[in-house]
Write a structure and sequence with these properties.
By secondary structure, the protein is of the alpha/beta class. The protein has helices spanning 9-16, 26-32, 90-99, 107-116, 123-133, 136-149, 156-160; strands at 23-24, 43-47, 54-56, 59-65, 74-80, 83-88, 168-169, 180-181, 186-187. The strands form 3 sheets. A 4-stranded mixed beta sheet has the order 1-2-4-3.
């Protein structure tokens, strides 16, 4: 019998998008950047093209809608010897995770990825991206985590400038209880 080549789930994701702009994001991007301590089965794709979630060859494909203006911080990444797909770069991956922690199994997984790749992250790019994203909750979560782990401290003041008066949850997947951190306007 002739051998059938194994299908790569990220190459399938690229094919599903046809010619639409896209990038692998959230838990899928964490995986491609070796920022996870656990296996991921779902493939998460961010695109301005609206598609319904589906399962192909027992793999769940999850589509996250975004505006075309939000397609930045994306790099071609090899997923097979002769196949590349679009993936958020490490800094964008962290911010996407802080923006939608439920697509990465929570803030603790994002924090783990941040810590695992701390020597490879560009802290200035991370804070510039954060400003470009314009999401106060993300700036608060990032500032808190960087301070907590003593990372990217040169960027703390820039992140502090993005903190508004209202409070956000550190992890929106958890209940609204716990201590408040006034400096970052976060509920832990």
């Amino acid at each position: 019998a002739e051998a059938i080549p194994e299908a790569n789930r990220f190459v399938i994701a690229r094919a599903l998008m046809r010619n639409a702009p896209y990038y692998l994001s959230h838990d899928s991007a964490f995986e491609t950047h070796n920022m996870l301590t656990r296996p991921v089965t779902t493939v998460t794709i961010t695109s301005p093209r609206r598609l319904r979630n589906r399962i192909i060859l027992k793999v769940p494909y999850r589509f996250v809608y975004t505006k075309t203006d939000n397609l930045w911080g994306v790099i071609p990444t090899w997923v097979m010897p002769n196949e590349q797909v679009q993936v958020s770069d490490m800094e964008r991956t962290i911010l996407d995770g802080l923006s939608r922690p439920e697509l990465c199994s929570g803030i603790s997984e994002v924090a783990t990825g941040l810590w695992m790749r701390k020597d490879d992250l560009d802290w200035e790019k991370l804070s510039l991206y954060c400003k470009k994203l314009g999401n106060q909750a993300v700036a608060k979560r990032l500032g808190y985590l960087l301070e907590l782990y003593g990372l990217g401290l040169s960027q703390i003041n820039r992140l502090q400038e993005m903190v508004g008066p209202s409070y956000a949850l550190l992890d929106p997947m958890l209940t609204s209880e716990g201590a408040y951190i006034a400096r970052w306007r976060l509920r832990i």
